[in-house]
Amino acid sequence: MALTARGGNRGPAAAADNRRALLRAARDLFADKGYNVPLSAIAREAGVGQGVLYRHFPRRLDLAFAVFEENFAELEALSARTDPDVFERFFERIVELMVESVGFVELVVGARGVVEEYDGDERLARLLTTPLARGQEAGRVASRVTVDDVGLALRMIYGVAATARGDAGRRADVERVRDLVLSRWRI
User: Fold this and answer.
1) Which among 23, 94, 121, 122 counts the fewest CB atoms within 10 Å?
2) Which of 70-74, 78-82, 107-111 has the highest mean predicted lDDT (pLDDT)?
3) What's the predicted TM-score (pTM) here?
4) pLDDT, tens digit (0-9, with 9 covering 90-100), for 120-129
5) What does the pLDDT read at residue 93?
């Protein structure tokens, strides 16, 4: 009987890789199958056991917020850019993230009332401030547009995305609303 070669258990040395794999799998599966995708499917997609998943993320909500935190990291990097069109790029990326995973955004919106320390709304408002000011300084966005206006527009776009019938209709409807909003904000 021949012994098969298999990788040894790397234990704690694999923790960071396992976490990254879980986040990648969760992002993909939340976007594709929705927030209620079985956690076992996420673990399987990441190539780890469920025990590893639960060690990193004791609750489904913990996993969801960790994925959402990656979105914030991406938006923070985009917000720091100095391009004259940074506001439009920032706004469009937020809209893309919404369309990619409407159910996931719905979870985070719903979690605002459940997780006391949730500060996503305030963080997003802070992140919007600099790109909006840059767009206004560059003459690309009307000075009358406020961070609250942008937040309202994002909620409207989310409503359109959440109520669309099918992915093709969702993308088309969201693009129309996005274009309407941006055209209204231009000088």
Assistant:
1) 122
2) 78-82
3) 0.76
4) 778 889 999 9
5) 93
Question: Are residues 132 and 93 part of one domain?
Answer: yes
26-69 pLDDT tens trace: 988 887 777 788 999 999 999 999 999 999 999 988 898 888 88
Q: Answer yes or no: do 83 and 113 share one domain.
A: yes
Burial label for 48, CB within 10 Å (0-12, 13-18, 19+), is: buried
